[in-house]
Amino acid sequence: MNWNKFFIPGLLVWLSQLTITNLLIIDTVRPDFICIIILYWAVQNGRFIGVISGFIFGLVFDLSGTANFFGISPLIYSVTGYLGGNLHGAYTKMNPLYYNLGWIITLVFQFLIFCFINYQEILFFDFGLFIGKWIGTSLYTITFVIILQFIYPLNRLN
Length: 158
Hints:
The protein has helices at residues 4-19, 33-45, 47-63, 72-85, 96-118, 120-125, 127-151.
């Protein structure tokens, strides 16, 4: 396996996550570019590569000092890699609507875990605000994935 196809894009996405997302922040919601590349790698290479790359990427992201809680990034990126890896080779076997709903539900579930841990104090005091943060965070990243779908669709990875 050619590790350069993981290392170079991974390094570029990690650097853009550290620098560019601070310019794109809305309130406390920022896009998650690492989640997008983990999803693409998982759909292209399967669950094993998705989980391993998600864990390694999450660990690097946590060690870079930008995460609020240590350990949440490897957890959510591994979940994204596992669930996204289930879509590996499934485009020809599934209805395209269900295929696209699969990666959308994967991202929404990943951000539910993230928001549940990151905004746990809001969950009990103002449930509506928690739902707003969860939906806002999910939609912001999903918007970037939809834009990327026009350039490099997920169904062409199989």
